Amino acid sequence: MAELRSVLEARLRPAFDAIAPGADPVLRPSDHADFQANGALALAKKLGRAPRDVAAEVVAAADLGGVCSAVEISGPGFVNLTLADGLLARLVAAAAGDERLGVAVASEPRRAVVDYSAPNVAKEMHVGHLRGTIIGDALCRVLGFLGHEVVRENHVGDWGTPFGMLIEHLVDVGESEAVGELSVGDLDGFYRDARAAFDASEELRERSRRRVVALQSGDAETLRLWHVLVAESVRYFDDVYTKLGVLLGPDDVVGESSYNAMLPAVVADLDALGLLVESDGARCVFPPGFVNRDGEALPLIVQKSDGGFGYAATDLAAIRDRVERIGAARMLYVVGAPQAQHFAMCFAVARLAGWLPDRVEAVHVGFGNVLGADHKMLRSRAGQSVKLVALLDEAVERAAAAIAESGRRVDASEHASVARAVGIGAVKYADLSTERTRDYVFDWDRMLAFDGRTAPYLQYAHARIRSVLRRPEAVAAGAGASPTVPAIGEPAERALALFLLGFEEAVAAVADELAPSKLATYLYDLASCFTTFYETCPIATAPAGHVRESRLLLARCTADVLALGLDLLGIEAPDRM
Ligand code: ARG
Question: Residue 210 sits in which domain range?
Answer without folding.
Answer: 162-236
